[in-house]
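Incident log, structure service

09:12 report received: a user says their structure output differs between two submissions of the same chain.
09:20 pulled the input from the user's history:
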Amino acid sequence: MDIQIDSREKAIKKIIQTFEERGINYVSSKLMVGDYMSFDNPRLIVDRKQNLSEIYSNLCHQHERFKKELIRAEKYNIKLIILCEHGGSIKGLEDVKTWVNPRLKETPYAWDGERLHKVMRTVAEKYGIQWEFCSKNQTGTRIIELLGGV
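09:34 re-ran on a clean worker, output below:
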């Protein structure tokens, strides 16, 4: 398996270590959307998010930039999987309902887990993306699995 890593992707030492341990070849160059793509299936891309706070920020504060990426994926018939490294009790999209947004301490207008879940579900339906979840120590393995490796 050969994987392209977006050159703007940061903090990936552990992921690269997992790739090397598994004998996965990788190159780093700019991707049109997302962060990881297998050359075996360039229409399937994984976009890594470090936690639900980053997803919240993408959907609430950086909405237009994130939306443009989703539209680009849709336009080029790319299946986009968003892998959230939140960990803990967040193992699937339904678990997002239980998330306590740290921003709620600062403003009552911040979204709670229920609202974030609804928006994530709507985005998935509208743009055909898939939400996946893992802990940080599983990220490299999950990327390989999601891109069709073993």
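09:41 both user submissions now match this output. Likely a transient worker issue. Closing.
09:42 reviewer note: The chain has five helices and six strands. Residues 113-127 form the longest helix (15 residues).
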